[in-house]
Amino acid sequence: MQNELEKLARKTNETEFYINIPKGYKPGKTKFIVVTGSVISGVGKGTFTSCLGALLALRHGFRVSPVKFDGYLNYDAGTLNPYRHGEVFVLDDGTECDLDLGTYEKKKKKNLSKDNYLTAGKIFKNIIDKERKGKYLGRDVQFIPHVTGEIKGFLRNLALKSRADIVLVEVGGTVGDIENSYFLEAMRELAYEEGKKNVCFINVVYILEPESLGEQKSKAAQLGLRTLMGLGIQPDIVVCRSENPINENIKEKISIHSNIPVSRVIDARNADNIHEIPVILKDIGVDRIVLDVLDLKARRENTEFRKWERLVERIRKSRKEIAIGITGKYTTVHDSYISILKALEHTAPYLLAKAKISWIETPDIKSPEDAEKSLHGLDGIIVPGGFGSRGSEGKILCIKYARENNMPFLGLCFGFQMAVLEFARNVCGLKDANSTEIEPKTKEPVICILPEQEEIEGLGGTMRLGGLDLVVRENTLAHRLYGKTKIRERFRHRWNVNTKYIDLLEKNGLVFSGYAPEKRIMQILEIPGHKFFLATQFHPEFTSKPLNPSPVFRGFLEACLK
Ligand code: GLN
User: Fold this and answer.
1) How many CB atoms lie under 10 A from the CB of residue 130?
2) Does ligand 1 come within 6 angstroms of the Cβ of 495?
3) How far is the CA of 493 from the centre of ligand 1 (A)?
4) Which is more confident, 331 or 375?
5) Which residue stretches of 98-147 are H helix?
6) CB count, 10 Å around CB of 104?
7) How far is the C-alpha of 441 from the C-alpha of 462, rounded, in Å?
């Protein structure tokens, strides 16, 4: 098949095929794992996929490159509302993407890029751009072979560029959705073209257990599997998600209906802690099954996995509770703060502690008394990122309380800007200090739009985005935390501290301990003498990883424990 494939790829313009093979690509060099979901979404397909990737990379030393396909027509996640869709994650190259990419990246040493994220919008935009340039040479552009060819080309390009041993594909949504139907068709073609041993299909199903029946039911899973097989995809492994352990007879039914041995029907019940999942998957032997399907040999036992297991042991031993308040307006959808929650969750065990979160509805905080009532008894407070004016006055009141009561405070992005306003108003005496995002005609625009942002038209991919270098000032808390003067962190903002006010703020005791190397853009602030009062214009939660937690989160939690 491989030689045939290469031959056909060369003759693409004369045949019905549109086999998109990048130069230098060798079929079979990279293996593919494709994870799909049936029955319902939101049952942990992304978590399973990232944990499997971690297991293969950390335990066996494979170079695993993940990719998420989202079926929506947005080009990327930049314009999505986190209240509806969960957090917008930002990659080092500035790609605004689904939070699942954050889940993957946390388990990897290397950063991900735009090549790891694909939406329907991106596929169609690329195709139409190509068509306008005459790249299809007189042919009518069709779903098959052109759209599917574009998708296969994207995956092969990722394989080639990342030099991955395994490309791990997660297909968003569930089998049977119109949104991902042509993507699944592309996966069927991929398996055919690459050869059976080079593609492993894993389908994640949900086993229902209606309370009124008190027993597990596999019918919905069976129908999902049937739909998948109807699309010409034979799963190699079926992962069952459920509230309770899966009964043997359920596994047998799944086996009968999907042509796979019972040993490849995996019981993936709820874990106490997400970090345990790679270890659980190892105990079940999922990695061995996958390697078997793909005809791969484990290369070496990797020590990285020991580190992961030690983290899990530490999590089990962590007893001390740290009470953290998080303010914000998306507090009903916790997924909109997922990176912060994860950063707390994986950093606290290094102090043998766990974070207990209280959500603070800032629109309800209208007076210093309200702030005191909400914050009293907490060990520390985080004011995270945000957009628009709602709740901003309540956030400022909370920051004032933390500053005056020596309560550890961590401000992130919008939280950084609110801390500047609080200080300007209550310490520097600028009663009208505001951000032009909140009050466009304010007399004291202490937070103003970045000069380079003024002329930008259109939303989506236009903020100051992605990984940027910054300088950390010596003899500051930030320097003690990072232990160096040059760092790189991730940004997603349009507003910043107005340069006209920097001197005044500093004269009154605010220290800007981190800034952009060439421009006068302030990026870290702190107040000396306070237990912990630090805010960042960037998002340290994006780069914090279980095996390498962010110094900012670690420092904050240490202060909370004192
Ligand atoms: N709305 C603010 C800005 O655009 C903060 C952004 C954020 O918190 N991510 O600058």
Assistant:
1) 14
2) yes
3) 4
4) 375
5) 99-105, 120-132
6) 26
7) 23
| pLDDT, average across residues 275-298 | 94
CB 326 within 8 A of CB 357: yes
Whole-angstrom Cα distance, residue 415 to residue 536?
8
Three-state DSSP class for 406? coil
Residues 6+ positions from 199 with CB-CB distance below 8 Å: 31, 32, 33, 34, 187, 190, 191
Q: Which long-range contacts (CB under 8 A, 24 or more apart) does 314-319 make?
A: 314/349, 314/350, 314/352, 315/273, 315/275, 315/276, 315/349, 315/354, 317/352, 318/348, 318/349, 318/351, 318/352, 318/353, 318/354, 319/352, 319/353, 319/354
Question: What is the mean predicted confidence (pLDDT) over 67-83?
Answer: 89
Query: What is the maximum alpha-carbon separation in the chain?
Result: 76
Instruction: Read off the pLDDT of each residue in 137-161 and give the average, rounded to a whole number.
Output: 93
pLDDT of residue 431: 96
- Is 400 close to ligand 1, i.e. is its CB under 6 Å away? no
The SS3 of residue 493 is: strand
Nearest atom in ligand 1 to the alpha carbon of residue 495 is 10
Domains and CATH numbers, the chain: 32-309 (3.40.50.300), 318-561 (3.40.50.880)
Burial zone of 116 (CB within 10 Å; 0-12 exposed, 13-18 middle, 19+ buried): buried
Q: Model confidence over 449-508: pLDDT tens digits?
A: 987 777 777 777 789 999 999 999 999 999 999 999 999 999 999 999 999 999 999 999
Tell me the average pLDDT of the chain: 92
Q: Any catalytic annotation for residue 413?
A: yes
Q: How far is the CA of 385 from the centre of ligand 1 (A)?
A: 6
Ligand 1 proximity of 464 Cβ (cutoff 6 Å): no
Supply 238's token pair.
């079926």
Q: Are 382 and 552 in contact (CB under 8 A)?
A: no
pTM exceeding the 0.85 threshold for the entire prediction: yes
Please tell me the predicted confidence (pLDDT) of residue 2. Answer: 60
Residue 39 pLDDT? 83
Which DSSP symbol is given to 43?
S
∠ CA 461-77-421, rounded to 5°: 65
- Whether ligand 1 lies within 6 angstroms of the CB of 414 is answered as yes
pLDDT over 90 at 404, yes or no: yes
Kindly state the average pLDDT of the residues 84-102.
91
